[in-house]
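REQUEST FORM: STRUCTURE PREDICTION
Request ID: SP-0412
Submitted by: Lab K.M.
Chain count: 1
Length (residues): 270
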Amino acid sequence: MDEELRALGCQNLGDTRGLRMEGVGSFDNYVGRLWSPTGTYRGVSSPGGMYVLLGVEGGADVSYGGETLDLRPDHLVFLDSEAEIDVQLTAATARYLWKLRPTALANPLVRERMGEPIPVARDAWQVVAALTNSALKAPPGVAQSPYLLRASELLLAALFEESDGVARVKTSTRPDQVFGEAVAVIEATFRTVDTRPATVASDVCVSERTLRRAFALMGTTPRREIELRRTRELRALLETHGSTIAFETLCEMSGFASARLAREALRRVG
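STATUS: Completed
RESULT:
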């Protein structure tokens, strides 16, 4: 039970009797649903990450950033996973919890409202809950896919925009915003071999053409930035582990599809 809780980004500080939980995911991305009659939990610090809580039944006092917020049913709250977080249940409580590396949610609007319970319509949040429920029953190959958590994050972003009542800025008219969001996506996903300009464009909700234009204004291209990030990672790994781990393995850890492509990238970058 303790290992499952830690995978979700929390540790138990009290009685776990009656706790029911299910979770699925891998690495820094995990989603789960929990029910417990009582309990106290503490968030596990995760640099660069985000926790998302959705209240379904009951309630909890959440200590975050020196303040206490009230998590109630039909409320969503975004939390910086590097902050000190304590959760004290005030009643038998059912909730969903996401631990993720934000891409679509890595924007100023969400950042401004971190730690603020945001009301969401039940018929709206049931969509992302249904995806989570299906994931918990899916075969491991599907349940642990990074695309599944990415789909969950996009749905959470849609929930935020719907409940926030703020129309999304048309990023096609804001190249500076497109570039910033795309860089955040690349930083979060470059180690995944499938990350490429098309997936980055999809994550920031623009066309590949718009993405290329935004990067051209900065004198570069999406493909080059992905390659640069991977080569920097590979060099750092070589410096640290070059004598103990095979070059091919370090290339894979850096997001390259093969050692040949990694060598070519190193030559191009210089």
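NOTES: Residues 2-164 form a domain with the Jelly Rolls fold (CATH 2.60.120.10).
Reviewed by: T.R.
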